[in-house]
Design a protein that fits this description.
Distance between the termini of chain A: 36 Å
Distance between the termini of chain B: 25 Å
Bound molecules: adenosine-5'-triphosphate, magnesium ion
Number of helices of chain B: 10
CATH superfamily of chain A: MetI-like
Number of helices of chain A: 12
Strand content of chain A: under 5%
Strand order of the largest sheet of chain A: 1-2
Oligomer: heterodimer
Shape of chain B: globular
Order of helices and strands of chain B: EEEHEEHEHHHHEHEHEEHH
Strand content of chain B: 25-35%
Number of domains of chain A: 1
CATH architecture of chain B: 3-Layer(aba) Sandwich
Shape of chain A: flat
Helix content of chain A: over 70%
Largest sheet of chain B: 10 strands, mixed
CATH class of chain A: Mainly Alpha
Largest interface: A-B, 21 and 27 residues
CATH topology of chain B: Rossmann fold
CATH architecture of chain A: Orthogonal Bundle
Number of strands of chain B: 10
Number of domains of chain B: 1
Radius of gyration of chain A: 27 Å
Structural class of chain B: alpha/beta
Radius of gyration of chain B: 18 Å
Chain lengths: 329, 264
């Protein structure tokens, strides 16, 4: 350091100092333009892809919809032999299992996020817990399904032994088993995004609350959570989107009832079915164009529900971060 | 010359022998008595431990992991670092205003009412909020928009809002860590006026980098310094006296140097 600065002082510069402003070279300009074009292209391609998917599926679903006049949407019977393709039970099952999972996984996930973000634990344990939960996201869906069949269902059955009246209803694969496993599957999404929201609450707001004589929990309840609530809501909605589209584990656990016996039930102990499971179970064997059309309709409904939910969630998270811009100043 | 200070009106008596952040020995041998209804200023170069000492006075440092202090801080007749003392209760009586204005993301009214609600002082809530805002010289500017967000105010207004929020639950002492460093000269002037008004009711301890500010508002001034000769970067209280004495006739050569250097 000192050597260079003294040499500068001793030998006056012979050439002109380097220009502060320099035109980009031809190759720099080319690469700039190339990469800008590439990112634009890719961004638009995703939009085109989604729109294209919606259009293609709609085209396939259209003949069935035209012939039946939309009967599928309010019929609860799916019976390929009688050309009855009602998907109302599946729509119901999709929403119900996802909401139940959200109730369980959302609560747990936000609680875990609070414990990770709010300095309750030594930093090593915190890091371990954080990585452990992120690892949950890497487990293949089919493993969750197996775990559900071999661990969750037997455990539920054992627990229900104490409630004989309930055990009579319990069929093993059911909305409850599916939702419990689904709750664990959405845990990483809820936890990671809620933690982001909690950690982006400026520390000086916490200090302000502590300085007024608030306890740790008063600070969390009255300052941190309200400030982070938009972000947490976004996290929950994105997790909802993930739960709606989950296929494999649900196909294994939800029971895939034929629904003639228990359509549209609130009872979580009964088997149910979901749109994604319907598609996974029936598509490979479907040959009758009417049935394929009905499956396409189910796919379209699922796609639209998840699209809307995800857009909504992303919008809320975007708004939450915009709100913080003002707070950080 | 201000009237002689007697030991009777000492409200905080701090004897900080050693203050650590983990292994880092940050402050040593800082003993000082804060006088009731006076303004006490801490001055000194950056990193000498002014904020650390200030945050000892209401146990804000408890929030820092690995923080440790040897010594005692008597508030009235109780050592706030004695076992079984609740730091939350301490902060109820010794409030704090921070360097960056930090209004909560809620309405102006709710900001000021926050501490009151926390401590169950909700009788005549609106009157108490108004009183605090008046004492913080902010009432006339916000009386027609109490429901608006506290974040929508200017920096100087936000800092006065934070002062109103801190004084609303009637603490005995108000600690201020460089409360004007984010403000322009006009807003700074307003806060200085405010401190002089407030001292009839509250004891104020302020950290400032601005020596003129200390000489303008403070009754007592403490000069802290880091001596790099001792190997570590451990700060300590060099001199603590009436403000006139510190600025006009300092006993310690270090104080003299610092004051002279800063005044040019
Ligand atoms: N939370 C902390 N963890 C570790 N070290 C800290 C922490 N806070 C302060 N220190 C260290 O303690 C010393 C004193 O810091 P302090 O903030 O009290 O100084 P200061 O006099 O307020 O400085 P400034 O005028 O820059 O605000 C510094 O060396 C600082 O690095
Ligand atoms: Mg400081």
């Amino acid at each position: 350091m000192s050597e260079t600065s003294s040499s500068v002082v001793e030998s006056p510069p012979r050439e002109l100092p380097p220009m502060v402003y320099r035109e980009p070279t031809l190759s720099e300009r080319f690469f700039d333009r190339f990469f800008r074009g590439l990112t634009w292209g890719l961004a638009w391609m995703t939009v085109v892809l989604v729109v294209g998917m919606v259009v293609l599926i709609s085209v396939d679903a259209w003949p069935t919809l035209r012939d039946s006049g939309g009967r599928e949407f309010y019929s609860v019977v799916w019976d390929a032999n009688r050309n009855e393709f009602g998907i109302l039970t599946h729509i119901w099952g999709t929403l119900y299992s996802s909401l139940l999972a959200l109730l369980l996984g959302g609560t747990l996930g936000v609680a875990v996020a609070i414990f990770i973000a709010e300095d309750f634990l030594p930093s090593k344990i915190r890091l371990f817990l954080k990585n452990l939960i992120e690892l949950l996201a890497a487990i293949p869906s089919v493993i969750y399904g197996l775990w559900g069949i071999h661990v969750v269902i037997p455990a539920l059955r054992a627990g229900l032994h104490y409630f004989p009246s309930l055990l009579a209803d319990f069929s093993g694969p059911s909305m409850l088993s599916a939702s419990l496993v689904l709750a664990i599957m959405i845990l990483p999404t809820v936890t990671a995004l809620s933690r982001d929201a909690l950690e982006s609450v400026p520390p000086r707001l916490r200090e302000g609350a502590y300085g007024l004589g608030a306890t740790r929990w008063e600070t969390i309840r009255k300052i941190v959570l309200p400030t982070a609530c938009t972000g947490i809501l976004g996290a929950i909605i994105l997790a909802f989107g993930r739960a709606l589209g989950e296929t494999m584990a649900l196909a294994m656990l939800v029971g895939n009832s034929t629904a003639r016996d228990n359509p549209l039930s609130f009872n979580p102990l009964l088997p149910g079915q979901t749109l994604a499971a319907l598609l996974a179970n029936n598509f490979p064997e479907a040959s009758d164009p009417l049935q394929v059309g009905a499956l396409m309709m189910a796919a379209l409904v699922l796609l639209l529900i998840t699209l809307v939910v995800n857009l909504f969630g992303a919008l809320i998270i975007w708004r939450a971060s915009a709100q913080f811009q003002g707070l950080r100043s | 010359m201000s009237p002689a200070l007697t030991t009777d009106d000492i409200i905080i008596n701090a004897k900080i022998h050693k203050l650590f952040y983990g292994n880092f020995f940050a402050v040593r041998d800082t003993h000082l008595a804060i006088h009731h209804n006076k303004i006490t200023a801490f001055i000194g170069p950056s990193g000498c431990g002014k904020s650390s000492v200030l945050r000892c006075l209401n146990r804000m440092n408890d929030l820092v992991r690995n923080f440790r202090v040897e010594g005692s801080v008597f508030f009235r007749s109780k050592d706030i670092y004695a076992p079984r003392v609740d730091p939350v209760a301490v902060r109820r009586h010794i409030g704090m205003v921070f360097q960056q204005p930090n209004p909560f993301a809620m309405s102006i009214f709710d900001n000021v009412a926050f501490g009151l609600r926390l401590h169950g002082m909700t009788r005549d809530l609106a009157d108490r909020v108004e009183l605090a805002l008046r004492r913080a010289a902010l009432w006339d500017e916000v009386k027609n928009k109490l429901k608006q967000s506290g974040l929508a105010l200017s920096g100087g207004q936000q800092q006065r809002l934070c002062i109103a929020r801190a004084i609303a639950p009637e603490p005995a002492v108000l600690l201020m860590d460089e409360p004007c460093s984010a403000l322009d000269p006009i807003a700074t002037g307003k806060i200085e006026e405010l401190m002089k008004d407030l001292k009839s009711r509250y004891t104020i301890v302020i950290v400032t980098h601005n020596l003129q500010q200390a000489s303008r508002v403070a009754d007592m001034t403490g000069f802290l310094y880091v001596d790099t000769k001792q190997g570590g970067r451990t700060g300590y209280l060099v001199e603590y006296d009436r403000t006139e004495a510190i600025f006009q006739d300092p006993r310690d050569p270090l104080t003299r140097q610092y004051i002279a250097g800063a005044f040019g």
